[in-house]
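worker-03 picked up job from queue 'complexes'. Input manifest follows; two sequence lines, order preserved.
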Amino acid sequence: MSTQIIAPVPGIFYRRPAPDKAPFVEAGDAVEAGQTIGVIEIMKQFTEVRSEAAGVLESFAVEDFGMVGPGDVIATIN
Amino acid sequence: MKKLLIANRGEIAVRIIRTAREMGIATVAVVSEADRDSNAAKYADESVVIGPAPAGLSYLNHEAILDAAATTGADAIHPGYGFLSENAEFARKVQAAGLTWVGPSPDAIDLMGDKSRARQAAIDAGVPVLKGTEGALDSAGDIEAIAVEIGYPLVVKASAGGGGRGIRRINSVEDLRSTVEVAQAEALAAFNSSDVYFERFVTQARHVEVQVFGDGETWVHLGDRDCSLQRRQQKVIEEAPAPGLPDALREQMRQTSVELARHSKYVGAGTVEFLYDPVRQEIAFIEMNTRLQVEHPISEAITGIDLVREQLRVAAGEKLGYTQADVRFEGHAFEFRINAEDPDNNFMPSPGRIETLELAGGPGVRTDFGFSAGQTVMPFYDSLLGKLIVWDTDRDRALARAARALEETEIDGIKTTVPLMRRLIALEDFAAAKHHTTYLETVPGLFGALV
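worker-03 finished. Artifact:
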């Protein structure tokens, strides 16, 4: 059973809270429901991307600093 | 100064290039891959691509910018506002590379960037400050007694904060310790320093500021501005001079601002920000911004002085050549920030292609924009498209001119704040200058259905 995490808004996807900080989560890590896995920036406004389900983050479909459109898949949770 | 590199983008890059060209200084625009075809690139003599679209990889990339300066033979760098404009480390690198930094000394940037040190500098220079704690708060001490002395409500602020960030309100002793601890943790995460301090909270404050300028030997002010019309601590409309300030207070604010610049041997353009409490008729120092500000054109409008020209002259080692008595103030000016945002959808950013860009003209109208019709507003950067600046002999006439200019302004293809601006200047409270920094949150129906 896998669920996909979808981009709530368009913009740039960041895997880290700041350039010098560790990523929110790595592929293979366990995540809880509601946990932040990244942020999307559009014109200096930041929106947190959260996992709706608990499980193991299998893979990211978008790389760090990648562009996303609304509805794009960002990651898959198993 | 023969060749100036502009380490910025959008309207401010265009603004700086315009004055440099008038002065016969060659210009280099550094652009991200997304800005290759920007107006800054078009107007500059040369342009250099310094990296991919995200600002962290381009406009904030120290080495890429310094490399571009070396490659093009630029001998000076103007940082504009935002990005690296208040980054002392970058300023030091620019100077170490043998280039002219168009701005105050890195030490002055450091001093004013540390809010508690800046507050102390203000006190030393005789600038009125809000009742609060001196230096960083010792949370192991009796902070309850300190809070009582200042009086509730009060705010706890991050020493390294700024721009409205790192501020929390405390209403009573019950919230005191927990809020201080949260504020310290937040400050550490956001600004890499857990230093915080207390200040008295003013319920309905106005934001007023003084434009100062100096060459290291002579200091002047170019009048004051009012930036009280704000949304979530972001300025929306600014005007100069500040309306309704008591004369004595205005004079005190202007003089002590010059004193602070003199005291810190400040070179270039700076802005001393104050909070004005209309109830107590008091002004108090907030912070000093060590850069050119977005709203500088309204000071240019009422003094006739080109601030960018002064910045470039002084950076190149020239002396001011005039004193305070030579600065003349005439009329009243407004600036409207036109953003690519939808005011009726919670100010959602609105990137996309600009189909139409009809800007106002005629007497007393200035438009500083970074875009033309047919260009695309990218999702990577600040939503500011440009500014409409109007001036006339007095405030009422300037408002009428603003209404006319906003009617002429037509931007299609993306959502902008132009329709909101038309609504704002029609508000009686704004016409009467009764607004304050949280006023917009109190006007029902202003932002469409969602607010």
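worker-03 released lock.
Chain A has one domain: 3-77.
The CA atoms of residues 15 and 38 of chain A lie 5 Å apart.
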